[in-house]
Specification:
Elements (H helix, E strand, L loop, with lengths): L10 E4 L5 H12 L3 E6 L4 H12 L3 E6 L5 H15 L2 E6 L14 H22 L3 E10 L3 H4 L5 H21 L5 E7 L12 H10 L9 H11 L10 E4 L4
Family: Belongs to the short-chain dehydrogenases/reductases (SDR) family.
Organism: Actinomadura graeca
InterPro entries: KR_dom, NAD(P)-bd_dom_sf, Sc_DH/Rdtase_CS, SDR_fam
Length: 247
Amino acid sequence: MKSEFDLSGEHILVTGGTRGIGQAVVLALARAGARVTASYVTGGEAVSALDKRLANLGADYQLVRADAAKAADVSALVERAHERFGGLAGVVNNAGVVSHRTIEDLEPEEWHRVLDVNLTGMYLTVQAALKRLEPGASIVNVTSAVAFRGMAGRVHYTAAKSGVTGLTRSLCKELGPRGIRVNGIAPGLVETDQMSGVPQAARDRYSGMIALGRIADPGEIAGPVLFLLSDASRYVTGATLHVDGGI
C-alpha cells in the first residue's frame, strides 16, 4: 500500500530549482520517487552540479531554462514539462530574487524586478499550469518569514512576499472546488547564496533571534514542502506553514 508521503511517479514542477531551497526540494523530490521538471534562469556550475547529482540518483528529471517573470518562458516551461512527463501533480513556486535597498535608494526598476520575479512569476506559473494540473494537485508557494515581520531595506521584497500570502489565500478559494490545494511555506534564515557574504558577527546576531539557535539548512525546508505536496496534507489548503526555527 502506498504511503501518504510517497511521491513515486508524481510529476512536480519546481521553479528556481537549481540553487538553495529549490535545489534541496528537487533533490528531496527525486529521492521520494517523483518525476521532476526544474527551471533556472542562469546556467553554470549550479545547474551542471545538480544535473550530475540527479543523474547519480537515477532520477527522472529535466532542467529547463525559463525566466519566471516572462509569460512566454513560463508557458514554454509548462509545455516542456507536460511533453516529457505528462500532467502535473504539484507545482512549487520557488523562483525569487532579493536585494537590500532603503526606500530612499529604491529605484522603480529594482522595485519592479523584485515584484516581477517573486510575485508576478507565481501568478504566471499558476495560470500557465492550470490546464496541466491533475485532480488533487498541490501548489506550494514559497514566501518568507520577513513578510510577517518586516525588515529595513527590504520593503520591495517584503511587499512581494506579503503578496504571496494573499495570492495563496485567494487561490485556495478559487481552486478548491477543482480539488486543487494551494499553500504557502515561510522559511526564516536559510544557508543559501544570500547568506554567503554575511559577516560572522551578523550571523551570530541572527542565530540569537532564532529559538533553535541556528540558521536552517535548505534540506530542512524541503521536508515541509514535500509534506504539503503529499497526501498527508490532503485537507490542508490556504495555510502558510512557518519553517523559521522560532524567530
